[in-house]
Structures are given as C-alpha cells and as structure tokens.
Amino acid sequence: MGGRDTEIVLLDENGIRCDGRKVDEPRRIMIKAGGLKNADGSAYIEFGDNKILVGVFGPRDVHPKHMSNTDTGILRVRYHMEPFSVTERKNPAPSRREIEISKVIKEALEPAIMLDKFPRTAVDVYIEVLQADGGTRCAALSAASVALADAGIPMRDMVAACAAGKAADTIILDVNNEEDQAGQADMPIGYMPSTDKITLLQLDGVLTPEEFKKCVETGIKGCKIVYELQKKALTDKYFGNGEK
Amino acid sequence: MGGRDTEIVLLDENGIRCDGRKVDEPRRIMIKAGGLKNADGSAYIEFGDNKILVGVFGPRDVHPKHMSNTDTGILRVRYHMEPFSVTERKNPAPSRREIEISKVIKEALEPAIMLDKFPRTAVDVYIEVLQADGGTRCAALSAASVALADAGIPMRDMVAACAAGKAADTIILDVNNEEDQAGQADMPIGYMPSTDKITLLQLDGVLTPEEFKKCVETGIKGCKIVYELQKKALTDKYFGNGEK
Amino acid sequence: MGGRDTEIVLLDENGIRCDGRKVDEPRRIMIKAGGLKNADGSAYIEFGDNKILVGVFGPRDVHPKHMSNTDTGILRVRYHMEPFSVTERKNPAPSRREIEISKVIKEALEPAIMLDKFPRTAVDVYIEVLQADGGTRCAALSAASVALADAGIPMRDMVAACAAGKAADTIILDVNNEEDQAGQADMPIGYMPSTDKITLLQLDGVLTPEEFKKCVETGIKGCKIVYELQKKALTDKYFGNGEK
Amino acid sequence: MATTSVIDELKKSQILELLEQGKRVDGRAFDEPRKLVIEPNAIPKANGSARVRLGDSEVICGIKIQPDRPFPDMGDKGIFICTAELLPFSHPSVETGPPGPDVIELARVVDRGIRESHMIDLSQLVIEKNKSVVGVFADNVVVDYDGNLFDTCAYAATAAILSSKTPKWEMKNDVPTLIEGVELDIPITTIPVSVTMGKIGNHIIVDPNGDEWDSMEARITITTDSNGNICALQKGGNGGFTFD
Amino acid sequence: MATTSVIDELKKSQILELLEQGKRVDGRAFDEPRKLVIEPNAIPKANGSARVRLGDSEVICGIKIQPDRPFPDMGDKGIFICTAELLPFSHPSVETGPPGPDVIELARVVDRGIRESHMIDLSQLVIEKNKSVVGVFADNVVVDYDGNLFDTCAYAATAAILSSKTPKWEMKNDVPTLIEGVELDIPITTIPVSVTMGKIGNHIIVDPNGDEWDSMEARITITTDSNGNICALQKGGNGGFTFD
Amino acid sequence: MATTSVIDELKKSQILELLEQGKRVDGRAFDEPRKLVIEPNAIPKANGSARVRLGDSEVICGIKIQPDRPFPDMGDKGIFICTAELLPFSHPSVETGPPGPDVIELARVVDRGIRESHMIDLSQLVIEKNKSVVGVFADNVVVDYDGNLFDTCAYAATAAILSSKTPKWEMKNDVPTLIEGVELDIPITTIPVSVTMGKIGNHIIVDPNGDEWDSMEARITITTDSNGNICALQKGGNGGFTFD
C-alpha cells in the first residue's frame, strides 16, 4: 500500500480498470492438473501474468523421525520465488516474506486435508513462482489444492483463493500489481466452498467496516470462480477434456 | 582503550570523577531477585545505567542427549544484547564479542556451582542486556549468581563482580563508559568472597606490576560491596524486606 | 582465461617462457612426505610458488553414523585456501570454487584408493593452500596422494597431477599464474601411471581437437615427472635419503 | 508462540468444557482482554521505549532512530522496520537461534498493523530525497510468554513509538550529519489498535492466554485505526473461520 | 544429480548386461542423445528465458540483466553469472537448503562452458569503464530430473541468452540510469554446445538418462564452439578414463 | 584447543602426582616454557609472515595489508584485526565449520594482547582521515596442536608483524591508489610478550603442553610490553585463582 502519487487511472468513468477488466472480473485464469514427471501430484496455474508450478510428495516418511507424529500426518509447505520471477533479480535464499507466506498457505490448506488418515508421515507441497504479477499467494494456494488432489491426498474439499481489494474508492475483485501498488487495500482470501469456511484471510490497507464486509463477499465470489476452474482441471485430466 | 584525545576531565583537582563519584565509589547498584514468570529463577540488576535481566532454567534434560554428561551437570550461558541497548542499533545475530563474554561468564560461574549434584542435566543461564553503559559483563555475572540462587541451584557461594581500572593515572573502582573509552585500563574481576577465589579476571590497558596489584585489591573491594547487595536481594525476596 | 591485453611476452623468440622455462619444462617441484605431528599421514609440496600442506586421518569412525557405508569406506576431501595465500585477502568461509575443487580432487583420488578394504569408516584428506601461484589443484592432488600413502591407506597407485595449456599459440607444460591469466587454455590433468588412467581432467579455454590431443599428451608427460618426485619423497622418508 | 509446548489433552478439553458453559479458565468474559499495563520510557537511553504487560505476557520494545538509505523507488519516504524476538527465558520451550516461521509471522503482522495504519508519517522522515532518510527501528523482545504476543507486541511497539523523540540530521558534504541538541517529535497521524481473537470449538474469545492459545484451532488479528477503520488483518492457525 | 538415490544393484547390472549386448535401456544408440525440445521466452517478463526438455529432464532458465559494479581488475568487461538449483519437486531425493557440492559443480561447469566459449562479448557490456557494467544473470531451475543436467542446463542457458534483449543504461550523476524504451540485442560471438558422456564398464554412452547416471563410474562434459574448437571440459565421477 | 578430546583420567592423575613431586611430564621446570622456533617470512608473497613452533604446537601467521574504511569515530586510526583458525589436520578432534567459542576467545585474546600494547602505531596508518585507512590483517592458522595456542599464536602474530612491509597508497579521485615500488616499514612502538600459565591442583605451570592443557582447572594469559608493564590479561577455565 505505497499510496504513492501515480499517473495510472485505476478506474475510468465507465468503471473499467487499468487492465480493461470490470470491477468484479478476475484476470485470465488457466489451471492444469499434473505435468511434473517425478512428483506424486502436481499442478500449474497461470493467473494473469503469474506462472506458478506446484509439486506434491507424500504421504512419505519423515526425516528426522522425531519430527513425525504418531497421531496424525503432517503437512509441510514451501513457497519459493525464482530469481528471475520478479523485476529486480531475487536473491535465491528464502526471504522473511517467503517464510511467512509458506506458513500462511500451510495453515490455509490444513483444514482441507484429512491429516489423521496418514499418521507418522508427511505431505510436502512445493510451490515455485516462475513469474510473479501480484496475488501470487492466492494463485499458489489454488494450484496447491489441485496438486494435492492430483496426488490422491484425502481431502475434505479444495481450497480456492482469490483476492478482493479497494482502488479508486471502489471494491474490486482480484487486485493486480498496479492496483496493489497504487490502490487502497488488498485482501487475499482462501475459501472452502463445500463447508463455507474461510481458511486464509489477510488484509493490508484501510477499509471501513462496511467496505470490509463487501470486500469479503466479493472475494468469496472470486473464490467460487476459481473453484470451478480447479474442478475442471481435474476433470480434464482424469476424465478427458469434456468441453471439447 | 581508545586513548583518544578527549575534552572530558576524568578526575578533577578534588579527586572527583566525571560522574561525581570518588575514586573508590561504585555507581548506583540495584539488584532484585526474581521477577520473571516462566523462568525457574531470575534476577534484575541496574548498575549505573546498565539494565540487565537474567533468567535461569534447570537442572533440565539435555537435547541432543549425547551432549549430556553422565558424571556431572553442565552449565550453559548466553550473554546477549538487545538491538536497542547500545548507541548504534546492534544487529540481532550474536557477535564474536558476545560469544567470548558468554564463555568468560560461564567459566566464572562454574567454580561456584555444584555441577556434580545434577549429573546428565543442564543449567541454562540467559543474560539479556536491555541497556548498556560500560561494565556489562560484571553486572551480568553478579545478576546471574543471584538468578542461580533464586532457581535453587546448589552453589558453593555467589560470584560477585566489579571492575577496577586506571584513569588520569589513578586506580579507580567501577570504570564507567567514559572512563573505559578515554581511560588507561579496565580490569573486570569476578570473586567468590567465602573462598577468596578470583573466577573472572581480564585486563585491557597498560599497568605497571604495582598498579596491577592495587587494581586487583580495589576491584575485590568493589566485589565485596556487590556481594552484600546480592545477599540483600535474596533476603528481600525470601524473608521480606528487612530494611523497611 | 581473461584474454586481457597485457604487456607480458609469454614466449620469446627463443621459445623461452616469461619465467625462463622451456615449453615442456615444469616449475621447480619439491615434495616431502610426513611433517605433521598429529595427522595419520601428511605431505608438503612446493610447486613453483605454490606451498601446500596436506594431512590425512583414517580410516576412522564416521559421525554421524548414518553417513557411513557398510559395504565400503568413504573418502572425504576438503581443499581450503588460507586468507593470506592470495593477493587480496580471502574470506575464511569456503567459496564455491573451493567446494568444487574439493569434489574434483575427491573424485580424482577415489579410483586410486581401495575403499572396499575399510568398510564403515572414512578417510579424511585435508588440503591447506598456504601460498597460491596458479595450478593449486594439481599440486594439491599430487601432495594428497603422497599423504595418503604416508598414512598407510591401501592404494592401487598414486595419482600424479600436472597442467598443460596453451599460450602464445603454443602448447606448454605446467601453466603458471601469468600464463593462466593471459594465456589461451589451461588443462589440469590427474593421472595414474601404472594403469594409464586419467582421473582428473578439466579444461578452460579454446583448443582445436589436434591441440587438445597434444595438450593431454604434454600433461601426461608432466604427470610422469611429478610421479617420480612423489616416489622419491616416500623413499626419502621411509628408506633414508638415497640420493645423498 | 511456544508452538513446541505440548498441552495436555485434558487441559484442552477442560477449556472447551468451560467455554460450553460460557466461562473462561481465568474467569474473563469471552470479549474481555486481560489487564494491560504500559510503562513508557523503560529504556531511557533508546530513542523511545515501552514495557508492556498483557496479563502475564510481557514485552519490551526499544526504538532506535538513525539515518539510512531509502528503499529503491521509495526515495521520498522514511523507513520503518519492526522486529520480534522471544528471549530464551520467556518460556522453557523457546530455543535460541535464528527466528522460526512463527516469530517471523509475528514480527511481520505487528509491522503491517503499524505500517498500514500510516501511524508514522514517513514522508516527513526524509533527510534528502532519494539519498538519505530517517530509519525507525522498533525491536520487540518478549520477556515472558503467556499467549497472544500479537497484541502484546503491537501495544509495546505503538507505545514505544509514541514515547519517541527523534534526533535531527542534515546533509553536509553528502553525509547525513547530526544536529546536536535538537530533538523532534515523531510525526504521528493515528494510533492503531490490535485485537486478536481465538476460535476454540465454535467459541470466539478475545486475547487468548497461553493455555487458550495452545487449544485454539484458528485466530484472527484485526488492527483498526483511530477512525474505526480496519487497516490490517491476519488469519492464522490450522482451522477455518465462517464469515458472519 | 540425485546422489542420494540408491539405485538397485539389479538395475545397474541389467544396464551393464544390455550394454554388453550393444543396447541401452531406452533403446538409444550409444552415441544418440535424447529428444531435445526448446521453448524460448517461456518467462516473458524476464529479459530472456527458455524451457528445455532433454528426454525427461526439464530445466527453465531465466535471464535477468541489470547494472552492476565490475570485478576488480576487470573494469572493461561486463559480468556473466550462471547458477543452478534443483527445485524440490524435481526428484523425491532432492532436499531444500543451500546447494551441495554436486549442484555447485553443475552450475560452475555450465558457467564455464558459456564463459570460455566467449559466447557473450562482455567487452560490449560496459556502461562506464571501471565504474559500472552490465550484469547478465542466468538462473537455471531444474523442474524434472532424469539424468544429465549438465547438458540440459547448458542448452537452457544458451537458449535463454539467445532469446534475450537487454535494456540500455547511461551514467547520469554517477548513477547508471535506464534509458526508457530502448532494447538491444545481446552481443553474441558463438554458440557453445555441451555434450556429456558417461562410462559404464568399458562403454561410453552419450547423454545418460537417470538410471544410467546412477550406474556410471565416470563422466565427461565437453563444450565446443561454433568452429568446432573445444572450449571447456570437465571429468567427473569416481572412476578414471583412458585417453584415446 | 581440542576441548573435545577426553583425556584419560589416569593421565590426569599421573600429571598431578608428578607435579606433587615437583616434576612435569616432559621434564621441564614449572616456570620453563617449551623450545620456541621462529621462522620469519615463511609465506614470502604475503606482506609479512612467520611460522612458529612452541614445542609441538605449530602456527603460521600471514599478514595481509590493504586499504579499508575506518571504523566509525575512529577515522584517525588504521585497522588491526587478528583471527585464528585450527586447521582440521592440527588434531584428530578438530572439526571444520565456523569457529566455536574456544577459537573465538583465542583470536580475541591474541588480538587484544597486540592491540592493548599499542605495538602498531595505528595513527600512522591513515590514508585520508575519516575516509580511508590501512588495514592490517593477521590470520593465524594452527598446523599442529599440542597445548597453549594462546602463546603460540601471539608469538606467530608478533613475529609476522615484525617481518611486514606495507605498500603505500594515496587518494586519487577519492579512491586509495597503490603507489608502485614503494615499501614501508610498519610503525612499531613496542614488542608484546604473552605468557600463559595453567593451574593444576595447587601448582602453577608455565606454557602447558597438550596433556597438561586437558588437565588444567584454570589458566591465565598475561601480556607485557617492552617496559615490563602488563597490558592485557585473561583468566580462563572453570576453576578459580587466589590472588597473591
């Protein structure tokens, strides 16, 4: 939320955003289940200009052993950006931001996974951001859910994620990079439609309580759009491309 | 011992030091036993403008196991400064200076502790310097002894510590920060009064053999002053404030 | 291969190199077996202005245990340069270059060592470059072979090493520092004479296939010179100085 | 924090049982925070500081203010950085070493709460645009742990900032130079307030203490500014929230 | 890579048995590489990029180009740096954390192949001599592992460099300043080609796949330039080669 | 150091028994140091160096002299930094990796002995006040360990400094520039001498060898300057000293 002076018109007189979208329109989304050869499950997502690969291993043995839990399986998540994924080359070592996002995504996935079905073992989710364009954590979380399903991990539901936010005093769906930099608020949401549960929720920026409510509702609408694409990705892989 | 040119008069014609003290007068000292909720024992010391908290855990199990000793308990000491404790903000990572002081304090405490009474276990002493003003290691060592006693660790005696030094060609007690920077020598001493044993002794700066002897004697006098305050801190906690 | 403009005449009209050598002449080489008190075996080499110490421990137990192999012994090699060994003071932490050279030397030594004779244990080779002058890896490898023999490690043969290269459009033996900086190619070779096996081979710089062949042949000649000096070093130590 | 502490299942079910009866373990109402004690200027030699106790959780925040280079593309803004550390005596389960994901998240959530509220007007902390700005470092150290460090650290950092005076620098010969004897107020625009709620079963409780913290399925931290607007929010924990 | 994978001794002997009959496990001729697929510009927002598949090994290389300080004594040359990372989903045996010796060697061999061929004319990448030069960073990430990463990474880096456009900078007030709207070709002098061969028993095979890689005694990577000259070479593995 | 070596209790009691009879294990008198051999200029390409043997302890110290930025508030002084490293072949118990507390203390004690004696007149090592000064780096590497590294390193560093010549730099265009062909003496004011004594039982012995070192309860290192003044002192070990 730099709130910096900027020449960009975030919303024009016709309610059209700087990248041509309407206020409640997400960016172009493409989700593909599978793709990696060696992972137990995988997924690839393009969300606007975000390009993210997710690979899953597990359930598998935990090393060192004392980190395993006899009562339940454990979930481990690494969110990582490639050096070439952002404008200024990123140092390969994990940043504090990456460590926090790894934790937030892990805690957003845990309510969806039946960890008690595989005690003593671990499921590893590896998220690699190849190209970043604002909203990587939502795109990553959505792809991770598909990769987990592709790996056959028992789940209650998939988590679908999308951000809502505020720019030019308007609540908008799926904040892009310019809107994140020059806008007023960004609120990533992770959501399980079948149980109506929010599993990821963050907010940076200033909202009145009314705007906050509208923002959550808008975000959940976005999550439902993503959810359909997640299901389609799995259907395409496992039952052929039914849309052709 | 910068020995830098300075405008400060370290000792005036009446034998009064830059902070108003006489040559054999320590700074204001306040020691309190206890205070921390979660530690097994603790102490707080104000020594001049030094403010130091010490917490003790143990005897407790050692992880990893192979670091324990079947014949004796082990003592572990960490001396650490807060980022805001010094003039220029300190990097939070432990410096070489902090590692050396941790070792020196550990070796100054060991002769006082009956480590053979708790084989296979460890006692951990955590020293946190909240505000530093010259002479932190002596203040820390004195507070650590009180915290160990507060934790009920079996001890032969407490170690009391105070520095002596040389400034304006005079042997002085309890070197303050200005005297350390502009003075001629600083000699921290740790001392067990009941056995007349010196357990910490360092010197930076130049002394003749005669000055050296006088310096040690002066420092031991300071240790004895500190020792009375250590005992008072424990008496105040365990038998009520008898001075009221 | 900086290929930088330079005033140095690498080869004069009489075929004499910048340090007075002929094209097929190595620098002054001195190898000594033994020398260290605490190592199980050791060697010291001076190769031109290179000065390198090697110490060997083993076969000895491996910690942690799970790194050992029940079928074979393991070889571990550390190549390390002292801070004062090069023109600009070197940071003491191991560089990527040192890590790669450690691996290359390890793999050059392994074919020579009968690792299956000491299962579950490890042999450690520690290489310390005291003064560097171009060609440290060959000098280090040659000295390491002698140190291993001195430690009584069962070996098929010693590995002898020497570089060949190209400067002033000529194939030369034992590239020195100036020739490495201003020359056209450098090719370090490690060689086991008894089995005619090349165990180390690298090349930086541009060679035609014919030059490549000649370069290898030239390097092997150098290795054979070094090999005689390796044997002499061991003979001198174990059977007295036969040349006196 | 204290994620390593394994709470007794019994205690957990007791807490839940009480909540079902409308009661909390320490007798508070569900929406009742613990007693808050703020001691400003606890570290007089820092530029600002506060010692804050929220129930039995205790945090000291010290502020250091010093010239720094601006971030790229942010040459017209001062710098604000907030850190957090659990001192090793704050709980038996705390380990020394670099901060783990829990502590990194804690620091980043507290940082964002203050940053996104625009509490400090960073545009007034510029010494020379694009060259030198004022950096405000708020370092939180946790002295005692009993749950809900998010709010305890947020209150400590906020109170420490409010207590701060900043020195003044001017550029001389391209170097930021201290103007002696001048002390300015920090430019404050609003006072953010952080409130953390935990979810146990279907119950939402404000300001969970240590035992409650270990029993929570999820938590949410909401920061509001002086106008009652929401300026930052973070969901945590491995459970989900329903929105209403 | 994948040094941690223990290949079944059975598979190893099967591979060897087949080789004795003149056959490879996947039906290729001994001198036949696997199918190579190159997708340039896979990461459009990077300055250059390529996604390369060699059989089932897959690598993405992204190029970032930005101003940098020249190396000491190299003030008239731009900078080229090549890295490699095995993404954790590329193989079950890959571990996160700093790169081990295998990956460091991989990166350095790929780097040298390109550097020693003089593929990029670094003398044209100078903004102001001795003060500021252009840095070209080629970061390889391994997406899927099935042997022979040396060639896969080399092809990815080479293709990514060939696809690159570089921004233009000029010195203004001693600072390298981007000239908007200008995009230049990278100065290319030659195209290096890397070929890696493995030795199993007495058989030399080109482009070993994952199973063959685990069975090799030694390998050799040879890089040639557009004129057919050899410009870099690296022997690896714990076996030896005979020269012929 | 070799703190990890567990000395046989038998050896310990033998040493003590002999001391009771007025004898040391190697036949020396209590106040008799071992034979000292100093080889100056052992590393001719360094700016100064010495190889020192004290009994069977052996240390090489190399000096590198190069321009550096002055420390804050010390703009009128050159820089002196002394390090120490135990090479892994110096004793079977030495482990590679970052230095532990023992080695950090060793380096800092040797550093202070030289620094506090004012051996090098740092005020003469200024290139331009507050901008650029001369840095003198004394790196000690331990080649063989047999006790008392404090004195061995101190002698090596002192001899290496005495053997040093320093290049000359002048500021040109704000950059320290080497003046070719000029070599100056280092400005020396005094020669510090370090003496280390160990306490075993009630016996004080000078220059303890390795076995004695492992049996000591406490040690003291005293550095005196050419005038016989004491300029640095450090007590170590987990025992106490009585003052007399």
Topology of helices and strands:
The complex is a heterohexamer, with 3 copies of chain A (244 residues) and 3 copies of chain D (244 residues).
Chain A: E1 29-33, E2 41-47, E3 50-61, E4 74-81, H1 96-109, E5 121-131, H2 136-150, E6 160-167, E7 170-173, H3 177-182, E8 185-192, E9 197-207, H4 209-239
Parallel strand pairs in A: 4-5
Antiparallel strand pairs in A: 1-2, 2-3, 3-5, 6-7, 6-8, 8-9
Chain D: H1 9-20, E1 36-40, E2 48-54, E3 57-68, E4 79-86, H2 101-116, E5 126-128, E6 132-144, H3 149-162, E7 165-172, E8 175-185, E9 193-200, E10 203-206, H4 210-215, E11 218-224, E12 230-236
Parallel strand pairs in D: 4-6
Antiparallel strand pairs in D: 1-2, 2-3, 3-6, 5-6, 7-8, 9-10, 9-11, 11-12
Helix pairs in contact in D: 2-3
Summarize the structure.
Chain A has 244 residues and is α+β, with helices and mostly antiparallel strands.
Descriptive labels:
heterohexamer; A: 244 residues; Ribosomal Protein S5, domain 2; 5-stranded mixed beta sheet; 4-stranded antiparallel beta sheet; 9 strands; 30% strand; globular; D: 244 residues; alpha+beta; 6-stranded mixed beta sheet; 4 helices; 20% helix; 38% strand; elongated
